[in-house]
Amino acid sequence: MDAAFTAEQDEMRRTLREILAKHCGPDEVKAAVRTGAGHDPGLWQQLSRRLGLPGLAIAEEYGGVGCAPADLVLACEETGRVLLPSPLLATAALAAPLVAALGTAAQRSALLPALAAGELTAALAVPGPALSTALALTGDNAPGDWAGGGRAGGVQARAVAGGWRLYGEVAQVLDGHSAGLLLVAAHTGGFARARTLLFLVRGDAPGLVRARQTTLDETRPQGRVQLRDVPAELLGADPDPGTAPGAAPDPLAALTAAGRHAAAVLAAEAVGAAGHALARTVDHVRRREQFGRPVGSFQAVKHRLADLYVQVQAARSAVYYAAWDAEQGGLALAQALEALRVTAGEAIQLHGGIGFTWEHDAHLYFKRAAGDELLFGPVHRLRGHAAQQAGLFAAAGPATSDPSATPEKAAV
């Protein structure tokens, strides 16, 4: 493994940092999240046209840059530094990989070029607060565990002449209020043979009702999506309405793969945010004086900052490894979210009285930490699932009534 960045990667990060420094300061972020879209469309177009940000990991044959997923991870460390509100996560890290993995040739040709160019944004809609389970980050994504299940709940799909129709509601969809394309997980096949598949729904489809939700972290806007007999297209299946539901590919493996890469992207954002929050805190304690000397000169403060630095650097190392090996995405995300939560909390305290005011910029980072852990965690479940996947928890042997029996004997 060569951990060194290429000249192209260094140039991309430098250019992206310069653009974000000019257009994405704390005041610009607060103004952007209060718009109807929840982000700055002008900045989004600039990032799309100048850097090809949403198309970094999309193949060149579909108009993308054709880079490895690791390049998107590195770019998202920069967007995380400034808490960039944008459709990047929902579009490039969640929706585009699913379209590329499951879509037919016609669907890929119709959707991926628009997604790569930033002309079309997309969102993944899964029932309930279960995005982390659907992506297999905190548990296996068996349909009954996250997709509603039973005779009610979730989104129901039924085949009709001319395609499919969806009915139901999804309460928490990242960028769901503004995305031009929705990838909706829905039940098909009735109760006895229920199966969860992914469907494409256009943002202007009749019967689609959307509204922006109030969220703790405004830099991650979410929408409530109601589907009232909405026309939809089965992702990955021939759009011929005569196609049987069983002919469509099972999306669970694709969701799991997308979850691994999305975890690395999220972890990179968290590490970027944690690193920037730490840098701002260090700068503050250098300038802030107490008892006639800088706050940062006190040994207790130095120790706290040193501990934060070690935690952030360890998380950054985990993220870079996950960018190379996507199987480590869940563990890297756990470490990065914890580093961001601890760093943001310490930033508020070390800023003193002003840090406790709700309007202070440090609270943007604290709310990002809390919001991401609610959406994609919690941390202990991320670690627990990663440990299970790695086989660290051996299956227990059958029970025995002999207290003198050793574990080896009990397992025989």
TrEMBL record:
Gene3D superfamilies, A to Z: Acyl-CoA dehydrogenase/oxidase, N-terminal domain, Butyryl-CoA Dehydrogenase, subunit A, domain 2, Butyryl-CoA Dehydrogenase, subunit A, domain 3
Q: Which family does it belong to?
A: Belongs to the acyl-CoA dehydrogenase family.
Taxonomic source organism: Streptomyces racemochromogenes
What EC number(s) does its UniProt record assign? 1.-.-.-
Cite the entry's keywords alphabetically: FAD, Flavoprotein, Oxidoreductase
Tell me what this protein is called: Acyl-CoA dehydrogenase family protein
**Pfam families in the record:** Acyl-CoA_dh_1 (PF00441), Acyl-CoA_dh_N (PF02771)
Keyword match Repeat = no
Can you give the residue ranges of the Acyl-CoA dehydrogenase/oxidase N-terminal domain? Answer: 6-119
Question: Is RNA-binding one of the keywords?
Answer: no
Identify the cofactor(s): FAD
Provide a Gene Ontology MF annotation, just one. Answer: oxidoreductase activity
- Recorded superkingdom: Bacteria
Please state every residue range assigned to the domain named Acyl-CoA dehydrogenase/oxidase C-terminal. 261-388
PANTHER family named among the record's database cross-references: ACYL-COA DEHYDROGENASE, ACYL-COA DEHYDROGENASE FADE28
